[in-house]
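Quick check before the chapter quiz. The format below is the same one you will see on the exam, so make sure you can read both the input and the output lines.
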Amino acid sequence: MASTAADLARLKTREEEGSLKAVRFQQQDFHQLRAESLKSGELFCDPFFPADCETLGFNTLGRYFSRTRGIEWKRPTELSSDPQFIVDGAKRTDICQGTLGDCWLLAALASLTLDPQILDRVVPLGQSFSSQYAGIFHFQLWRFGEWVDVVIDDRLPVREGKLLFVHSAEGREFWSALLEKAYAKVSGSYEALTGGSSIEGFEDFTGGISESYDLKKAPPTLFHIMRRGLKLGSLMGCSIDISSSPETEAVTGQKLVKGHAYSITAVRQRAPPLNRMCYADFLRQFSRLDICNLSPDTLSGEGRGLWSYMQFEGVWGVGSTAGGCRNYPATFCSNPQFLVRLLEEDEDLQEGEEGCTLILGLMQRDARRERRYGGELNTIGFSLYRVPDEYKGSGPVHLGPEVLLREAPVTRSRSFINLREVCELFVLPPGEYAVIPSTFEPHRKGSFVLRVFTEKHAHSGPLEEELKADIQEIDEEERDVDPHFRRLFLQISGNDSEDSAFELQHILDRVVSQRSDVKTDGFSLQTCRDIISLLDTDGSNKLGLKEFHGLWTRIQKYLEVFQMFDSDASGTMSSHEMRAAVTAAEMFKTLDVKKEGKIHLDLQQWLCLTIS
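Here is the expected output.
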């Protein structure tokens, strides 16, 4: 490598800055594994991503398919007499597409070569086929909120002596082919890379968050967005769309190549020289603008004013936190919630504009790895609500239906869409906001990462909901029991005037079997034993009149609550409905200030209670 000295100097600087920290993917330690291979004299073979059909794919690249016939796995030392990792620096010409449909990844790789500082993060320096060569290489990729160090062996798929997938033009440079293999490893297979957006690859090579703009519908503030983004270190690329395959590589009258990505390195607000393009020309000639905003852990940030950045992980659980969008009011409020507190306005907004710049990105995890098992992307989006003044400063508060269903959101994602990530830029007044990420339909399982980018420092965090129930014993004397109930109890309890577990099971099963509004398989004997254990105050292992009356009173109340909150009249109670029932119980306790066991409600209170 011609620039070895410069590379080693950059490597030393990065190690001193601590920017090489990354989580070991699948717990593989590159330096330890390389040392072990050098000691044994055997080239490294990766047990987690072996040279076989499973690594190639699961459908058209799976075992027994025609596309995999004749494929061999060979190391670069078997393909070239003088293999090189990188020759004279990484360049766009090092990247040629093979038979895999991952041109989106190649476009991201090409853009990566334009920023040596970011490239050094993804492609660690000091790797070669000469010094300490042991058949092992490693790369660093950003994966769903963290940087991972990915180890691979250098066995590559080959047919008739030529690389099957990404390769360099001259044939002896292998960094791009090996990086593609590392990306395939974290995605589960080579075939999992088929189809995608260059934005996805760009984010995984930088840890940034991307915005995409259709230049035919450019917002009036786009020039200012571009200028401020470059000031904060954002990376930008533009391209010209193609409408058919013959247009690929077509050259326009301005000598621009269709389908290629162009980098934007500067934006200036003055008359351009004759050989430069003005903003109006830019909008006319190009179709799309992509902006990748970098997080502080992408690189050292020297000379760049990077965005302030926070991220959170969450899940949509079926029957609990997978509440769907606002079209589903019965479950929407159970979605995860996150607080964003915007503290101070930005200073460099354009004239007449005030507020705080906020970029939100909602990303669903592991979609490519799940393709092998038939997994599909959820349709996702988010809403933002202003936190009411009465909740401010009171700690984490999970907003309920009195806010989420009665108030309109301040803003929301433009649409719900089945992409890996939904990202939007907003300019909002200072204040506290609740972000509600959700799938479009309820009961859709998934896990996600929510990312928050702001120009100024902001505070954010999850809004946890504390659910609790206060169960109190009811002290009652046998004399308070209704005489009619006493006679019924004596008829069913037998000679000892107490109910055993067997007798209780028989009674309860008879009761629920006669109700059409409750679906149940009945009470197990162990459940009845547990009930007796909880209510048996005299240690007889049976329920006497007073104890059974207490149980019966509770059952009647529980059935009333069940009917009230079984909103779909299914005869069953989902966790969404259970959440509402518990919340209502807590609300009743709060409103019963005199502890009389009854409450008086005005119309507004009654409406809040019934829709909660």
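If your answer matched, good. Residues 211-293 form a domain with the Cathepsin B; Chain A fold (CATH 3.90.70.10).
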